[in-house]
Specification:
By secondary structure, the protein is of the alpha+beta class. The protein has 6 helices and 5 strands; from the N terminus they run H-H-E-E-E-E-H-H-E-H-H. The chain has a 5-stranded mixed sheet. A hairpin with a 2-residue loop joins strand 2 and strand 3.
Length: 126
């Protein structure tokens, strides 16, 4: 699963609109998938570190917790209703957000689009 996040890190470098959206975002985010912890460290909108956990020494601002199947469905080119958005995952009971939710909401579009960078593509679908 960590390879998917390294793919996101590589794709983010080629997304000037996302780098502009995230230019004020410098935080560490925890993504927990079925107990597997992955820490994404952002600096001015760029991912500077993708680190596997668990780590009691790594502070994080907010967390997205979900299961692997839900995340794979989220990453489909055309996700089913409920799997199309990180808050959709929470609404259908397949995801949870913890920590500083205000920070998440302030940077919601940026974070949602970064997470969607691993989405599979179809011809004609970005």
């Amino acid at each position: 699963m960590i390879d998917r996040f390294r793919e996101i890190e590589a794709r983010l470098k080629d997304q000037p609109h996302l780098l502009r959206l995230g230019r004020l975002f410098s935080e560490t985010v925890l993504v927990e998938i079925e107990g597997e912890e992955i820490y994404l460290t952002f600096d001015k909108g760029q991912i500077t570190s993708v680190m596997a956990g668990p780590s009691r020494k790594t502070p994080w601002r907010f967390a997205l917790r979900t299961d692997a199947d839900a995340l794979e469905q989220f990453w489909q080119a055309r996700p089913a209703p409920g799997f199309h958005d990180i808050f959709g995952l929470a609404k259908i009971g397949r995801g949870r957000m913890d920590g500083d939710i205000l920070c998440l909401v302030k940077n919601l579009r940026f974070f949602k689009e970064v997470m969607a960078l691993a989405r599979h593509t179809e011809e004609g679908v970005a």
